[in-house]
Specification:
heterodimer, A: alpha/beta, 8 helices, 10 strands, 25% strand, B: mainly alpha, MetI-like fold, 2 domains, 84% helix, globular
């Protein structure tokens, strides 16, 4: 599932008139690729997630998944947000099977449960199947949220700052969970983030957006290692890469002023 | 243990309340026409025990039927107002206006429109007085649903109905039960307004009125206590339902 965003412009209607957020944005993400999108706040990163998932239509331009133009939501997309948005009245396993209730209505409950349980074990929460979300920590909730976004085996996973609200160590744990999920499952991933280390560690391509209205400003491959480790982030190669990205963000912010 | 405590603690507080009441009347040496004491109530109950049973039941079933209808009406209006901004801004002034009118003044109007239909009149007043909190809580609950909750289902191609019954409705249940508790106590006010103001010859309101006419003050107090007990009973039924349907929202 490769994703092509072709000359996409988007604007919102606000009380102060039209607010352009994206302008002539073009980028392509290869099949099974993992692309991180960074940029100044309010530059329209979340708009990209809503466009790719088909929740909104671009004002101009088109988005293609596997050469098919997106016009409405697709069941082959999974989403996770900064807020884990778990349903508090459902236990962990029933939260995870929610997408299956929409997408695979014919599947039996036991099948759904076993699909969900596989993922839950993969993120290290095998014993928490019957707990309520209110009994889980922030990091655990986010793990459950990731399981939910993957339970229907989507071909595209969209992550909108899912780790932003977590403390530094929990965040690093979840980065490794993400590596594991990526290795075990077959999906193309778009990650929106403000954390450059996160972008470099998780993704194989990092894209810097310019200030609003956003377009592509900088694009870099980050395959500095076959299997990335946290300690790699302290190597001189990665430090240089991070410095370059930091510099690009500053350029983007200046444009905003 | 928790279950027993849930029963014993309220019971104790009731007993202490009655003792304090008795003490207050005894200390001030008030005659029963000024304020009846709990010890005056039992003879009053006993004297009219058949009437209490018959009238109590009449008041109770009308209140419950009225309450059920208020839930249905409040839910439907709340759902409409929660999903459509146009309906919400269109209906709010009318609903607030309706709610602001003193219900005691509506009683004669309703009684005139449906002359002789006592049960229906009473139930209408119950509905008028108790649907509003339910309607408001549901509409607020639905209209403030965070966008991400909708997005997780919308991005999978779910329809509005699926979002409603899988997410929006269960998520507003705690607010709904909060409102239902308010409505439950209001409903008894509705029933008795009709029974007291319009002489139907039915219900506890009528018994209260008879007590007033015959200057039987302990009887009047006994009616009030019966209403209070019925209110508490109905309230706990709501709490029971809340535990079943929205127990996840209650902090242990």
């Amino acid at each position: 599932m490769h994703i092509n965003i072709e000359k996409v412009s988007h604007q919102y209607e606000t009380k102060q008139g039209m607010l352009p957020v994206l302008k002539d944005l073009s980028l392509s993400i290869k099949r099974k690729g993992f692309t991180a999108i960074v940029g100044p706040s309010g530059c329209g990163k979340s708009t990209i997630t809503r466009l790719v998932s088909g929740l909104i239509k671009p004002t101009q331009g088109s988005i293609f998944i596997s050469n098919k133009k997106i016009t409405s939501p697709l069941s082959t997309v999974g989403m996770a947000f900064q807020n884990p948005v778990l349903l508090e009245w459902r236990n962990v396993i029933k939260n995870i099977i929610l997408p299956l209730e929409i997408v695979s209505k014919n599947m039996t409950y036991n099948q759904k449960r076993s699909n969900a349980l596989d993922l839950l074990k993969l993120v290290g929460l095998g014993e928490f199947e019957n707990n309520l979300p209110s009994e889980l920590s922030g990091g655990m909730k986010q793990r459950v949220s990731l399981c939910r976004s993957l339970v229907h085996s989507p071909e595209v996973l969209i992550l909108d700052e899912p780790f932003a609200a977590l403390d530094a160590f929990t965040k690093e744990d979840l980065w490794d969970v993400m590596h594991k999920l990526k290795k075990e499952r077959d999906f193309t991933c778009i990650l929106i983030t403000h954390d450059l280390r996160e972008a470099v560690y998780l993704a194989d391509q990092v894209i810097v957006l310019s200030g609003r209205p956003a377009s592509l400003q900088y694009d870099v491959k980050t395959n500095f290692n076959e299997e990335k480790k946290i300690s790699d982030l302290y190597s001189s190669e990665v430090s240089k890469l991070l410095a370059t990205l930091r510099n690009q963000i500053e350029i983007a912010q200046n444009k905003n002023d | 243990m928790i279950r027993i405590n849930n029963f014993i603690i309220p019971l104790f507080s009731l007993i202490i309340f009655c003792l304090l009441w008795e003490l207050l009347v005894w200390y001030n040496n008030w005659p029963n026409y000024k304020m009846a004491s709990p010890s005056d109530l039992w003879p009053a109950f006993w004297k009219f025990k058949h009437l209490f049973l018959i009238y109590g039941w009449e008041t109770f079933w009308r209140t419950v039927v009225g309450l059920i209808l208020s839930v249905l009406i409040g839910l439907s209006l709340g759902i409409l107002m929660g999903f459509s901004k146009t309906i919400r801004i269109g209906l709010y002034p009318i609903l607030v206006g309706f709610n602001a009118i003193p219900k005691a003044t509506v009683v004669p109007v309703i009684a005139l429109i449906f002359v002789g239909m006592h049960n229906m009149n009473t139930i209408i007043i119950v509905i008028l007085i108790s649907f509003f909190p339910i309607c408001v809580s549901i509409s607020i609950g639905l209209s403030t649903l965070e966008r991400e909750y909708e997005d997780i289902l919308l991005s999978l191609g779910a329809n509005k109905f699926e979002i409603f019954y899988k997410i929006a409705l269960p998520k507003t249940l705690p607010e709904f039960f909060g409102a239902l508790k308010v409505s439950t106590t209001l409903a008894f006010i509705g029933t008795n307004l009709m029974e007291i103001i319009e002489p139907h010859g039915k219900g506890l309101g009528h018994l209260f009125d008879s007590g007033k006419i015959s200057a039987d003050y302990p009887l009047m107090f006994a009616v009030l206590i019966t209403l209070a007990v019925m209110g508490i009973f109905l309230y706990y039924i709501v709490v029971y339902l809340e535990n079943i349907f929205a127990g996840w929202a209650i902090r242990k």
